Amino acid sequence: MERAEGLQVVLGAGGGTGRPIVEELAAQGRRVRAVARRPLSGLPEGVEVVTADLMDPASVREAIGGASVLYHAAQPAYTQWLGNFERMNDSIAAAAGAASARLVFADNLYMYGPTGEPMTESTPQRATDKKGRLRTALAADLLQRHAHGELEVAIGRSSDYFGPYGTNTGLGDRVFGAAVAGKAASWAGRLDTPHSLSYLPDLARAIILLGDRDEAAGRAWHLPVTDPLSGREFLTRLFEVLGQSPRIRVDSTLVVRAAGLFSPQIREFGGVIYQWDRPWISDWSAYEAAFGPFRRTPLDEALASTLDWWRGHAAGEANAVGIAHGDRRGGPTREAEVAGTSR
């Protein structure tokens, strides 16, 4: 537990994964440094904020000085992973090794490819798309560095996430943002296939444990996720929490790929659309067997918390637009109202 008492540094602290990690660490009374590309506001009291260029090893070394645990929740823009993600990871891994800090990498499930079967940490990694192959290579490189004694690594793998600050995700504007705006929530792929999801506050609690526990190092772990629900079941529950009748729109695989002809972002998503047109189930039993029972937030509670955050986010966006048009009667600034967004 000496590691837990040391300085905890979060890279990508302004993002959907990084921000909840910062907030959970602070809630636990840890010493926390939040590192992002741009200055952050609205963080818990006592959190140190540092800006850094994560592509620059010297900048990263300076930003993480004194770290005991380094949570790597940063990533390049979704359309710019190739080339940039490798460079970023090289920079961060070198800095972590030099600082003798444990590196905890926030990973996803892309490396398994279109399996359709429940995924465990030993599921063959058969990615067929460029993003999945890249994720395979990034994790393999970090684990190889660990095996060679260059640094200490633990990897936490989550599924598609939702929760406060979860804007840059398929469940963000298209689902929660739309629902709080009184519009139909959009689900990609097939509506009736089961899908594991990660609730961001639970993800944060789970990945922090990988920074604390000695036995977590040297391998990848599937982090706790929701019980798999189909898109129809998830969206029905969401609208029940809203107290409204479900309003659901389905964007089929064909529609997504057609839209990708005009949008680079959607085109990149189209490469992994297989995750939404067949079962996508993450088995996290190894995590629970190693570290004991994990209390997941009940789904209705998680949905209510996420909806509350999106209401505040929408109000902050509207207020920011009003200020931009010269209306300064709308209340607090976006920073005060929302306390930051995903990225």
Can you give keywords for this protein?
343 residues, alpha/beta, Rossmann fold, seven-stranded parallel sheet, 41% helix, globular
Short recap of the structure:
41% of the residues lie in helices and 16% in strands. It is built from 13 helices and 13 strands.
Could you explain the architecture of this structure?
The chain is built from 13 helices and 13 strands. With 343 residues, it is an alpha/beta fold. The chain has a domain of 217 residues: NAD(P)-binding Rossmann-like Domain (Rossmann fold). Helix 2 packs across helix 7, helix 3 packs across helix 4 and helix 4 packs parallel to helix 5. The two termini are 32 Å apart. The relative contact order is 0.14.
Decide which structural class fits the backbone.
Answer: alpha/beta
The CATH class of the domain at 2-168 and 196-228 and 280-296 turns out to be Alpha Beta
Strand order of the largest sheet: 3-2-1-4-5-6-11
Count of helical stretches: 13
Strand tally is: 13
Order of helices and strands: HEHEEHEHEHEEHEEEHEEHEHHHHH
* Strand content range: 15-25%
Unreliable stretches, pLDDT < 50, 5 or more residues?
Answer: 321-325, 327-343
The N- and C-terminal alpha carbons lie at a distance of 32 Å
**Into which percent range does the helicity of residues fall?**
40-55%
Mean pLDDT: 91
> What does the largest sheet look like?
7 strands, parallel
Please tell me what the overall shape is: globular
